[in-house]
Amino acid sequence: HYFNRQMQTATEGEMSGEDRRMWGKMRMNPRDISDVTGETYTFLINGHGPADNLEFMFKPGEKVRLRIINGSAMTFFNVRIPGVPMEVIQADGQDVQDVAVDELQIGVAETYDVVVSPPDGSHALVAEAMDRSGMGVASLTAHPGHKASPPPLREPVTLTMADMGMGAMDHGGEGMDHSMRDKSLVPPDVEVGPGVDMIAPMPVDRMDFPGLGLDTVEHRVLRYTDLKSKKMNPHRMPERTMQIHLTGNMERYMWSFDGKKFTSVTDDPIRFAFNERVRVKLVNDTMMAHPIHLHGHFFELVNGGEHNMHQPRKHTLVVQPGSSATFDLTADEPGDWAFHCHLLYHMHAGMMQVVTVRPFPENS
User: Fold this and answer.
1) CB 162 within 8 Å of CB 323
2) Which residues lie below 8 Å from residue 10, measured CB to CB, with a gap of 6+?
3) pLDDT 10s digits, 93-137
4) Fewest C-beta in 10 Å: which of 24, 29, 290, 294?
């Protein structure tokens, strides 16, 4: 943990001694939030660090549309403009019904378009790293040269039992299977070898979770369950279901889908028939959030209701630690497409697959 300066000490943090011993017995670190932190990175906005005093100009009284793109390699950001509400109008470039928020968490490769009406003055545009180790800062200002003062970094994030895959039980470790590697909980095709140090015992859908560290703030935070497509989707139920497990060994830094690294599955892609509709359930058996990205397609988030005609369309989906998330995919783009975690080191370490859509339609 050379880069992690937020480890709990014997006297720091609210976690009880009993809980600390339980986490230690399982060789799990409740402050392991990000692989690379602000100790190493300088967080940038449009290529500018906090010391550059980047300014975005506006005229008092006008509405400003901001396209927020997480183009980083390894960082989730919590984006806010203190004192200025944001109206989310697009997710991953797709129109959604307007959602008023004060803050949103954005995973790598995600995009949100927001509209703001800032009052006269200078306002800090803050992109705080999810682990609170640093932030990107710019000024949204009506006065050239006026630098807005950013808020201080908030307290470090501490993982909970829900992030361990215990989302269906109360806090506390009584009666827990501390092995955390019960293979009966996963399908037979999931390989549980040295590259898998954990299987989530009771993963639950956490589409309504705002993101690590944002579940206790008092202001409005965007959740996937807030997103509704502005345009009604065609009514078509899935023809089959599929389950994919996000797996890894955090200490050995091995990442995979279904316990198999990309190098071992190149001849066994994820197969879809052209134009078939499939409901895909992603189960995160690790204690890190993963932004899962599919090339060539938009899928629909299953974020409430069995016959929801306004499921939002996205190309990237953050699956929270120890939880599940589901999307509906109409495989209408033939070819071979990358499917991977968009955390760069996770992808290169093996959390990647190929989605194959066949056959090619005639005259294509």
Assistant:
1) yes
2) none
3) 999 999 999 999 999 999 999 999 999 999 999 999 999 999 999
4) 24
CATH of the domain at 126: 2.60.40.420
**The pLDDT value given to residue 337:** 97
**DSSP symbol at 255:** E
Look at residues 141, 164, 186 and tell me which one is the last residue of a structural domain: 141
* Exposure class string for 40-50: b at 16+ Cβ within 10 A, else e: ebebbbeeeeb
pLDDT at position 188: 86
Q: Minimal CA–CA distance to 286: which of 138, 187, 184, 159?
A: 159
Residue 35 lies in a domain: no
SS in 3 state form for 154-177?
CCCCCCCCHHHCECCCCCCCCCCC
Q: What backbone phi and psi angles, to 5 degrees, belong to 348?
A: -70, -25
3-state DSSP assignment of residue 264? helix
β-partners of residue 255 are: 248
Residue 80 lies in a domain: yes
Tokens standing for 19? 């809980």
Query: Which residue, of 123, 141, 159, is where some domain finishes?
Result: 141
132: left (phi over 0), alpha (psi -120 to 50) or beta: left
Domain of 339 in residue numbering reads as 204-358
Assess contact for 204 and 165: CB atoms under 8 A: no
For residues 242 and 316, membership in a common domain is answered with yes
In angstroms and rounded to an integer, the radius of gyration of the C-alpha atoms of the chain is 21
User: Residue 293: in which H helix or E strand, if any?
Assistant: strand 290-294
Question: Per the structure, how many domains does the chain have?
Answer: 2
Q: In a 10 Å sphere around its CB, with 0-12 CB exposed, 13-18 middle and 19+ buried, how is residue 70 labelled?
A: buried
Per-residue model confidence (pLDDT) at position 21:
77
Residue 6 domain-assigned (yes or no):
no
Q: Is 147 inside any structural domain?
A: no
